[in-house]
Every structure is written in C-alpha cells, then in structure tokens.
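Internal ticket #5521
Category: modeling
Description: The requester needs a full-assembly model to guide mutagenesis choices. All entity lines are attached below as received. Residue total reported by intake: 1396.
Assigned to: D.W.
Attached entities:
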Amino acid sequence: MQAHGSSGSRAINFCLVGAGFIGPVHAANVTAHPRARLRWVVDLNAEAARRVATKHGAQSATSADAALADAAVDAVIICTPPRTHAPLIAAAARAGKAVFCEKPVDLDMKPVMDCAKILAATRTPFFVGFNRRFDPNHRALFDAMGNGEIGRPEMLILSSRDPEIAPPDYIATMSHAIFYDTMIHDFDMARWLLQDEPVEIFARTARMLDAKDNPHRTPDTAMVILRMARGALVHVNASFRAAYGYDQRIEAFGEKGMIVSRNPQPTTLERYGADGIRQDRLLHFFVDRYADSYVRELDAFVQALERGTVPSIGIEDGRRALMIAEAAMRSAESGAPIRLAPGPPQPSD
Amino acid sequence: MQAHGSSGSRAINFCLVGAGFIGPVHAANVTAHPRARLRWVVDLNAEAARRVATKHGAQSATSADAALADAAVDAVIICTPPRTHAPLIAAAARAGKAVFCEKPVDLDMKPVMDCAKILAATRTPFFVGFNRRFDPNHRALFDAMGNGEIGRPEMLILSSRDPEIAPPDYIATMSHAIFYDTMIHDFDMARWLLQDEPVEIFARTARMLDAKDNPHRTPDTAMVILRMARGALVHVNASFRAAYGYDQRIEAFGEKGMIVSRNPQPTTLERYGADGIRQDRLLHFFVDRYADSYVRELDAFVQALERGTVPSIGIEDGRRALMIAEAAMRSAESGAPIRLAPGPPQPSD
Amino acid sequence: MQAHGSSGSRAINFCLVGAGFIGPVHAANVTAHPRARLRWVVDLNAEAARRVATKHGAQSATSADAALADAAVDAVIICTPPRTHAPLIAAAARAGKAVFCEKPVDLDMKPVMDCAKILAATRTPFFVGFNRRFDPNHRALFDAMGNGEIGRPEMLILSSRDPEIAPPDYIATMSHAIFYDTMIHDFDMARWLLQDEPVEIFARTARMLDAKDNPHRTPDTAMVILRMARGALVHVNASFRAAYGYDQRIEAFGEKGMIVSRNPQPTTLERYGADGIRQDRLLHFFVDRYADSYVRELDAFVQALERGTVPSIGIEDGRRALMIAEAAMRSAESGAPIRLAPGPPQPSD
Amino acid sequence: MQAHGSSGSRAINFCLVGAGFIGPVHAANVTAHPRARLRWVVDLNAEAARRVATKHGAQSATSADAALADAAVDAVIICTPPRTHAPLIAAAARAGKAVFCEKPVDLDMKPVMDCAKILAATRTPFFVGFNRRFDPNHRALFDAMGNGEIGRPEMLILSSRDPEIAPPDYIATMSHAIFYDTMIHDFDMARWLLQDEPVEIFARTARMLDAKDNPHRTPDTAMVILRMARGALVHVNASFRAAYGYDQRIEAFGEKGMIVSRNPQPTTLERYGADGIRQDRLLHFFVDRYADSYVRELDAFVQALERGTVPSIGIEDGRRALMIAEAAMRSAESGAPIRLAPGPPQPSD
C-alpha cells in the first residue's frame, strides 16, 4: 500500500505472522471480510503456516521477509509470542506496511518505546488488538457511560476469569502472565471506559492451582486496586480456573446508578427440574465469547486503513497497558502500592 | 359481635371449623394477628381439633354448635371440605357470626345461591379466601394495570401448576378438581385483574398421571381459553405435577407492553459450576408460596370487621368463580365452548 | 444442476424470486455462503430486482423464465407473496430446479396438493422456510426434548408476538394473516417439537388495533388450543403489537420438568437506576431475531442438495401447517373446535 | 436472670438502651418474639424512650440505672452510638445481665479489650449484632460453602453499598464510618464465610459526594483487598450513594465454581415496555433488606440464653472486625498495606 489511506476500492492485502492459537481466527476473519484478503501466512512452523495458508488461498513462509518485500501486501497481523512482536513491528514499519499487533505489544517497556519511535518516524498505521473494546456489550456500556447514564463514574469492577491456564510453554515466556496476558485487557478497559489514567496500583496474587496444572508456579489468581487520576477506584480480579467457563463481567458504578455488562450465554434455555432451575454454563473461552469482537476489531482496522484515519487503539495504549501490568507485578512482588505517572512518558524514557 | 363494625378496641374472636390441611395455617395467623384471637377449633376429628386448639389456647369441639352459641365469638373461618361449606355458612349467618370461607364456596350453584340469600337477609359480613389476590407480586401487577401501565389489556396468560395431586380422598369429592379446586383461583384472578367478566369458555383436559398417582382418573392437566366481555382473551393452563415445584405465573399483555408476575424463589443464590448455572427449585406448594397472602387476607377480613366495611371478596365473587369452573367442566366434557352471561344472575336462578 | 445430489465441489447457483422484504436477506446469505452463488434476482419490480442483483453480482429480470431456462441455475428461492408460490414451484420443478419456498406454501390446500404431486413426479428437492426450526435456542430445546429431559411432553406454550402489523397491502392478501402468516410458524413448531400431529383446534381472535393501524380489520390478536394425537395440549397466543419488540418464547412442560426457550436480548446490559433495573427491549423483529436461523436454514438446504438427501422440511410439512391454519380460521369464525385428521391426506383430497 | 441458661419457660425480659434508628426495630422484634418481652426502654431523649416504651407496654427511663437494678431484667440490647457501648456493656455485665450489642462494639481497641475481660470475669452471655450472618441468602451461601460446593475458596467479592450517607451527627462520631460502620459487616462476613483470618489489608478511599451531602468530608467510597491466612483473596467495595437502593452482594469463587448471593427484590414483576424490560429498584436500606435477619439474630440470642449456650457471635468477633476496620483506616491514610496478626491478641494488648 503505497500511501496509507488512499487504497481506493481494492481489497486490503494481509500478511499474517503467527499461525498458532489466535492466528487462524484472524485468518478466517480476513477472508470473510468483504474488503480484505489474506496473501501470506508466516510461521516458524512451516506445516502450521501451510495449513492456514492453504485454507485461505494464501502463500506460506517460515520468515516474514518475502511477505514484507511483497509490494502487494498492505498490512501485517502479528500474533506471535510477545517477545517477537517488537522486531516484527519494526520490520513491518520499515517495509511500509500497516501493523495490527496482538497484545501485549511486548513484555518490556524499552522495546515498546523503540517501536513507538519507529512507528512515528515511518508514520505507520498501528493497531493493538484490545479486542474487548469491540465486544458489543462492553461497547454498549462505554456508550452508556459516555451518555452520562451513571453520571460521574466512582467505581469500576472488572472480573476477568479464564476457564483454564494457558499452555506451560506460553506461560513460561512471562513472569506474571496473569498481569501481562490477562489483566492487561482489563487495564486497557479501565483506561478506555473511564477515559482516565491510573495514578496508583496495588496488586496481590495467589497460587491456587497445584503443580500439575501450573508447573511453572506462576500466579494464577490475582486482585488489584487502581486509583485513577480523576478519583475513581477500580478493582480487577482474575483467575486461571473458572470451572464454569470464561467469566468476563464489568460493573460501572457512578453517582446516578450502575451499569453491568454481563456474560452472554450460549443459549437462552432455562431448564426447570426437581433439583432447581438450570441455565447453560458460560461460553468456554475468549475465542467463543469474543468471536464478534475479533471480527469488529479487524473491520475497524480495515476501515482506518481505507479512510487514512489513525487506528483507534495505538502504540500509546499498548505502552500504557504494559506499564500498568509491569507495576502490578512489582506491587505483587514488593507488597507495596506502586505510583504511576498519569501524564505522557518523560523524554528520558 | 353484636353489631358488625362496632367492635371497638377488643380483639376479634374466631372459631375455626376444619383442623385439616389449611386450618392450622389460619389458626396460626389468627394467633399472630395483633387484634385477633382463636377461641374455638371445631373438627369431626376430635384429636385434630384438640391438637390445634391446645397449640393456640382455644377450646375444641367436634360440632360447631357450642361455638356458634358462644356470644363471644365474632367470626367463623370455614375450611372443611367444599360440600360442607353451605350449611356451615347458613348456621353461622343465623348465629350472627361473620364468615371467612375457603374456596370454593360450594361445588354446586344452588347452595351458593341459597347462601347468598341468607347472607343478604342476615347482613352477614362474608369473605371468600381467594388468597392470591393478596400475594404481593400479583397485587403489584394489579396495581400496575390499574395505573394503566399496559394500557388496554389484550391478553392474560395464567400458569397454575401444582407440584403434586391432592390426596385421593379429597380429589374424590369433586368431578373436576382441576377446575373446581385449582383453576377456580385463576378464574377469580382473571375477573379481578381485568375487572371484567367472561362471556365464553373453552376447556380441554388430559390425564397424564398414571393410575398409581391418580387412582380416580380425574383430569390432571388442563388448558382453557376465556373470552371476556370487553374483548380480552385469557389463557389458563394447569397441571397436577410440576416436577420443579409450585409454578404460579401471570402475564398481562396490553397495548403498551407486558407485565409478568414471576415466581419468587427460596433464595437468591446462583450457583455456577461445570454443568451450568443453577438456581433453587421453586417453593414447594401454596402454603410456602402464599404464606404472606394468607396473613394478608386474614388481616383484610379483620379490618373489614373492625371498620364495618364490606369484605373485599364477597359471595358474588365466589358464585362467579364457581360458575366458570362449572362451565369449564361442561366444555371439557362436551368438547364445545360454553357461553357465560356476563351480567348478574337472573331472578329465576 | 443436472442430477440432484451430484453437484460435486462447485457452488450451488441460485435464482431468487422476490426482491422484497425477506428477499435481500436470502440474497445476502447466499452470497455469504462459501458454496452458494446468487446468479439471478427476479422481481416484477425491475428496479428492486436490479438493486439486489447488482449488490451481489447477479443478473436481474422481471420474469423467472430466463432464469429457469438457465442450465447453470441449480435452485430457486421463492419469496414472493403466497398466492404466487404454487405456479413458481411448478415451473421450477418442471425446469429441474430445486426449490426453497418461503412459508406459507400457499393460502389454499388445492394448489399445495397439486404442487405435492408435481414435486413427487419430478423428484424435485423441496424445502419450506420454517426458519424457527433453525433458531439455536429452539433447536437446543428440541434436542433437550429428544434427549428425554422433560420425559413425556404434556403441555407446550408458544408466544408469538410481532411488534407491528404487516403492511396493509400484504395483510389484504389473506383473510387471517395471524393464522396463515404468523401462527403457521407455531403450528409447525408444535408438530416438530412434539413429533406429533394435532387432532383438534380451537381458536379465538380479537381486533385490538384501531382502524388506523389495521385498516382491513384483520384479526390482530389470537389464542389457540391444540390437542395432539398423543394427548399433549398446546397453547399458542399471538399479537400484532408487542410494544416491547418481537416476543418469541416456547415453554415445554413434561412429566420431569419444564424447559423454556426465552428471548435473546440485544445486549447483556443491566442498568440500575433510581427507577429500577432496566434491560434492553427485545430485538425488534424476525429479521433481527432469526438472522442466524436464515443462515442455517439456507445451509441445511445447500447441504441437502450437495449430499442428495431429502431436505428436512418438505411439502408435507407445508401442507400440514396450512391445514392447521385453515382450521384455526374456521374455528375462529364458527366459534366451534375443528377436528383434524392426524393421518395422511385422503385420496379424494 | 439469676443463672444464665436456666430461665426455664418464662419469657426473657429485655431492656433496650437506645431508642433511635434501629432501637424500634429491636423493640418490635422483642415484642413479636413468643418468648421475649420488652420491659424497659432507655434513652437520653426522654420523649423517644417514652414513645417506644408506650408502644410495647414497657417502662421508660433516661438512664439505664433503674433497669439494670431491676431483677426481672434478663438481658440488655445496646443500640446507642458506638462510643457509649463499652461503659454500658460493663455496667450490664456487672449487673448480671446478658448483653446484645450493636456493631461496632466500640471505635477503639482498648475499651473492647476491657469489655472482653469484664465479660469473661462475669461470665456474661454476649452477642454482637452482625445481622448479615442471619440473612437467609447469605446463610445459604455459607451452608453451600460448608458443604464444599465450590471446593477450596479462592476469592471472595463483597459489594456493600448504602443508598445514602448516615446523618451528619452520626457520621461525625467516627473518622472513617465507611470502615467502622459499613465495611465492618463485610470484614465479619469474610471471616465467617471463609472461616479464616486476614493477614493483610490494603484500603483506598475517595470522597465522591459533595459538601452538601457530606459536610464532614468523611470518605464515602472505598475499596479494600484482604489477604487471608489460608491464601484466599478478598475484595470489598463500598459506597454511600447507590442511587438504585441498598446493594449487598457476595460472590464466592473457588476451585469448583462460584456461588453468588444476589439482592432480593421487592417484587418479582418484570415490566416490558417500549424502552426495555424493567424490574423494581432494590430494597431501600438495611431495615428493609435485613428485616428477617434482625428477627433471626434476636431469636438466636434468646435461644442461647434459654439453653445456656454461648451466643454465636462473641466479643472476639467484635474485636477482630474492629481491628480490621482500624487497619483499613490506617492503610487508607498511609497508603500502605497493613499486616494483621491472624492469631489471638497478645497478652500485652
């Protein structure tokens, strides 16, 4: 895409990097999008890359080089492990490709800051996949808050519970996946829903799973309190074993009332029997729950490219969420609350 | 009570006739009422009468004669089998006692009409125990309809399901207990909620229980459609085996919307587990569900006596509900809809 | 499609007849289906046909002749007004095209019987668009009943309420649209869910809308009781003005309990304010509520064609639903219940 | 009561000290209890004392001296402002009366420790009014946890929101009423539900109400995280302005699932209208929500006296809840988490 935003009527051509868990979801959404096309699938695992590529009529490769050199490629979707994101972002930006990057942008601040500079210098359209912002229920909550339905927000409570722990190989890449991988979504939601920045965080973790399920003994249970610059208090709780499915609720409380974004359910059935009234367990996990959100976030990215507008979730959103996750980890480890600067990063950063 | 309505500050003295199933409930409510006192308990079963009387510091007898001759007795609560109601009503009225009678007033129209004449001649305060009118939820529905919340009512749907069939001895006293004993409540509710009279009824029954549970082969399942004088349509369905407890719901639909009176639940607990979300089964039966209603209907009766006002549910309400039950039975038996006169009974009746 | 069921890997080519209200929905679903393609759009209104055709890269015409003569066309979707269905079915069948027909198949029994003969003679794959069978919630209810979760079914209650009356031009084509156009779905659901046939129907209607909204004075409110061959009782209620949106609920009651298929809601939000707890109104109408069902029924049809199997809802289903609607109308007009033969149509039909 | 636990069949005679807000509730419950009688009502405000006393046939006084000297008095209910509790407890204990004391026992640890000594020395039956333990829903949650329904508890989330701030005169008696008066209930619930003690607390407060509603600028919004000795994490949030009523929910999450004790609702009505589905706002405040709990806690106290057993909530429960409230205040003021000794108080305390 020679000039971002001037793509005219032809489809946006994508290169997907990372054919693992969430990669195929993005691949399918690109193919289903009326104005997007999957051109490359890249993965170190040649067989995985080929499988996804074949399904969608794309080419496959074990390195992104050829795809980035392909002038027909407009945009890159990065869904490899977090520590590989920064070099891919840099390479894509230098190759003139727009970037859609899964969260977290990285696990350390330095690479994120470096990316920010490169993206700015190359004027690369960049989008972080905080998909929950595109969930219809959470979005309706955001809109209702924006319409002043609860007046000044006073408390925000986010429940963020996974039905199972991520695979050991993935967990092992992070010291505190519960903050960097899971709650990072909630940190972003707090910033977005309240349109405010945290000034302090206190975090506590626990290890509730046994060694069989959690061989790396990573914290699997956590609670956090955030204090926001404009005064609202935020609570987040997370777990890696919600026996009843993926539990994602948001409760926004303000001077005029409360709005709750509840879990959707697989079906509407209510079963009345001798032992009570039963409804379905929750949807199993994020791919089920946020299927719509993945479609919508891709569409938001495509539209931004088509219109030449700045994607709605940028590198600064990625940086701030990571900064909060990092502070959560330090608080959990030190046992003390951590102050967070609400303003922009200092020049010396 | 020499002059109804002039009882001043002393308690209303009650004689309870019928110490069976619902009798003890009324006895306890009389005792708990701050301005009522239980003086007599009458039952053919001397032991049953004595047991209830002793518990509440009352006298017991196997005939109502002594109690009706007791000048201190102000009012009689009749909760014997339906066919014994009419003679007891007549005797009480002639003895100058106010009467609280369980539904149905009788199983035939003739004795009810006779009672009406005696009650009118003796100016006896009379009340029929259509307890559902005093349920707080149904009452709130009534009030909301009265406030015009749904505008003109167009459809009313009543679900009226018992968790089990009544004892064979009781069932055997009636040809169609499902109409005379169960739906008679719903027929009263339809009249009361819509403030209107039915002009036609169509009824269908089924026998779903096997001979062990339903030895008399009485209809145990029924559906009815009523057409009301002002045009609204009413559906009632009933069953004698709701496996999940006592199911009593009302759905009022009108030009501006719908209001539903749902089942209350024993607790508010929601249990989330691997097999779904579970809530309590429903309250077991009418004594559990309508405990409040029994207290409130007694209080309404006591207040009417104290103030000398006409009790809110009179013999005409009892007569009309019976008339509808009788028509339901005839429709179910003949397979044809039955017309009902919306106006008052003719003199020749 | 030369030989039904032998289409191999190429897409099924469709001709859509009727570009009105539901036509564009089918057109979009055909286009979105990975193995279907829209080739023709036919409508008397040339402009409407052209608009839909252009959007999906199809040809347009004001008559079906050219499309039926097009050897590349495999199947026809008929969504014109009911009285035009039969001749189109016949023409399509004679042209060797499979047929997907919107309900009702016709408004009279004779043309339906004639269609049945032609379809049989030509061995044409035929499908009636009873889309509710494909609603995920109703389907889950069907599956649960099939698994014996409520044991023997005893009562079925269907609420079927539209938010508004159909346009006068459409309503005018039928004497009782509330039976032929709306409840016909419920009649099909009763047959399907209970896997049983009705032996009797009683129906009552009312006119609740004023002349402005209902200029043709068609019945806009109705209640029905069906008695099924195996004994279950069925109630259906319908309205043309549910102020709160499209209300479609099913309640299946049996010896072991009850299962309810409730309305899905636009969002999961619960708003707590000074005046109570509020949730969204219901989805507005069938296109919103049954969006998924339309996709799924098309896929079921496509799969049947691909596999050469008989489509799951055939002409006999269409005929029986129409027969019940017709009986409902006769009952409502005569005021008497109507008997229905549970068995196959007589030869003299 | 000469010898605690040997009262035989005569009623327990009560002296109520404090005829303010909650006093009349206790007075009515004593009168309604079949084996309790209100003999004295004491309040500095002679008129208030007289009004409550007259209503229940008791004597009134402006000092407790005469009542404590009355040999017929068995027990004292203390519901005066918190700082007056300790001297009243001591006086009652010395007079040989059993004590039912509203929470908090005091606002400082020293008087509570002194009371503990006196109570132990005089072997006085003592009960703290943590009424929520007697709420049927919370109790059912407790029972379910005891039955192992969620396995090992991992997280507990308590929402504790008042519809309005307490009167300025009352608020002014405490530095942090949100901890000492409101969350003290939740601190007790956490201990009771988890059968465990906290080892650390972190608290944050905010002032969201304006000066008109909150003239003393006491914190009106608060969030807390507790870490329990056995590892579970607890979150409590509180507010003094829940626009939608008294909001009291508990969410217990464990290895096998989650159980939620939800808010009961005034009625079961669901109102469907053009603007959505509406249910009642919540019950207004604690007297409405916990009416049952007040009755049940009194009964528990009466039964303990009758049977000579130790009341279920003792001075140690009062002390521990106060200790947590005090730590919450210190954490909120210092910004640092506070450690709590899970074991018994040290001798030097």
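Resolution: model delivered.
Comment from assignee: Chain B touches chain C at residues 152, 154-155, 157, 159, 161, 200, 202, 204, 206, 208, 221-225, 227, 231-233, 235, 237, 239, 241-244, 247, 253, 255-258, 335-337 (CB under 8 Å).
Ticket closed.
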